[in-house]
Every structure is written in C-alpha cells, then in structure tokens.
Amino acid sequence: MSGRTGGGLFSRPVTPVGTWLKIASTEPAEIMAFAGFDFVVVDLEHSPLDLVTAYRLINTAAALGVTPLVRVPDKTPSTIQKILDAGAMGILVPHVDTVEEAAAVGRACRFPPHGGRGAGGTSRAGAWGLRPNPEYLAIGNDEVLCIPQLESVEAIKAAPEMLALDTVDAVFVGAADLSMSTGSTPASPDVLDLIASAITAAHDAGKKCGLAFGGVPEKAARAVRDGCDFVLLSNDTTMLAEAARGLVRAFRDAARTQED
C-alpha cells in the first residue's frame, strides 16, 4: 500500500464525500466548503475551465480546509506537473486503460527516484520557494494522490496490476463511460459486477475505490455499504440548474393553485 492520504483525505473517520467544480468562479468552491464537502474535484475534462481558473479554485478550496483534487484533461506529464505545482493534492486521470498508462501517470506525479516530475519549489506547492525543498519533495512523493479512472472493461481487467503500482493510490470507476463501453447502463448487472471487481481489487491491494452518483445520495450510501471508499455527489452547475428549475416550478404550481 502506498500510504498516501491526500493531505489526510483518506485518513478521516467518515467516508469522504466530494463534488465536481465546473463553474469558472471561486464562489462555488467556497459554497461547497461551507456546505460540508470533504473534497472537490476541479473538472478540466468536462468543462471549459483553464489552468489559471483551476489554480484559483485549488487555492480557495485549500484555504477553507477542503482537499483540492483535479481531473486533468489528458495524461501528459506537463499538464500533471502544472496542476500539482498549483497546489492540487491529487489528480484523477480519465481513461487509463492499461497498466502501462497507469505507470506513466504515476511517474508523472512523483519526483525522482520514484518518477519523473520536475522540481518547481518556487510554485504554490513549494510556498513560493519558502517551503524547504526536502519538505516540498516529500509532500509530492508522500501526500499527493494519483487516481486513474477506470472507464472500460479493459481498464477493469487491468485494475489489479494498476493498483499493485506504488505510485497509484486509488482508482475511480467512471460508471457512465464503462456502461457505454459495454453497450448497457450504469445500473445493469454486468456493469455492477465490473464495479464490484474494481472495489475488490482496490481492497486486495490495500487501496481505495471511488464512484460518482449524481444527485442521488441514497445510491451513494448503498455503495459505501458495499465497499466504496469515497464518493462524488452532483456538481456545481447541476446543483444550480436543479435548484433554479425547482424554484420556478414551485412558483408556477403555487400560482396555479391560487388562481384555482
């Protein structure tokens, strides 16, 4: 087991719950902190956010005691390095299908001799050069989480080998893409079996497996009872959209009732 906790995220007494951030503003990060989320994932894959905005969201979350993770848009070491030097305590990497890809991503997260990440101690991660270099390097190697996303049958099959890598700390199963790869749905028995096998592989390796559940906390709670170790609920844009639509519908219904 790697033993990394993402700044303590994986050492909390309760199951960590997070959400995705997609809005190019720091206010949603503040709101999620005040709402009680343990972590946020700045989503650079399925949103128009850029690196500068991601940096500001990372900083806001961290300042409020929320663990900042980032879903990177690709597997390139240059992207991963910029995100980690911006202060992210971990990355989620989409569509990691093979152990070779997982190993490459893991190397990009770690400083030598464990990987190939370049030193950038004058960045935010190094407290602008004020953090002693040994401490900066230790945080990068001992705290930052590397979390491949398993989104295909091939990835699920490779999960035991991926999780055997010391540079990989957990996996996240993307049920929507996984179900599309099988031509079924996230709730279909074959997909549920694949998810269960990923959870088993993670636990056999002494590591974690996470899932996302949209705005259905009851499903997330059932998954935790079945072994899921961390969960993501909804995202800032959908929360706003659903609240706005619900408010308008409630007003229309109330207005019609008064008219009657």
Would you mind describing this structure in some detail?
With 260 residues, this protein is α/β, with parallel strands linked by helices. The chain contains 10 helices and 8 strands. An 8-stranded parallel β-barrel has the order 1-2-3-4-5-6-7-8, surrounded by 8 helices. Strand 3 (67-71), helix 3 (77-85) and strand 4 (90-93) form a beta-alpha-beta unit.
Keywords:
260 residues, alpha/beta
Q: Number of DSSP helices?
A: 10
Beta fraction? 15-25%
Q: Major sheet: order of its strands?
A: 1-2-3-4-5-6-7-8
* Unreliable stretches: none
Based on CA atoms alone, the radius of gyration comes out at: 19 Å
Shape verdict: globular
Quick one: biggest sheet? 8 strands, parallel, barrel
Q: Would you report the number of β strands?
A: 8
- Distance separating the two termini: 65 Å
Return the average pLDDT rounded to an integer. Answer: 96
Question: Share of helix among residues?
Answer: 40-55%
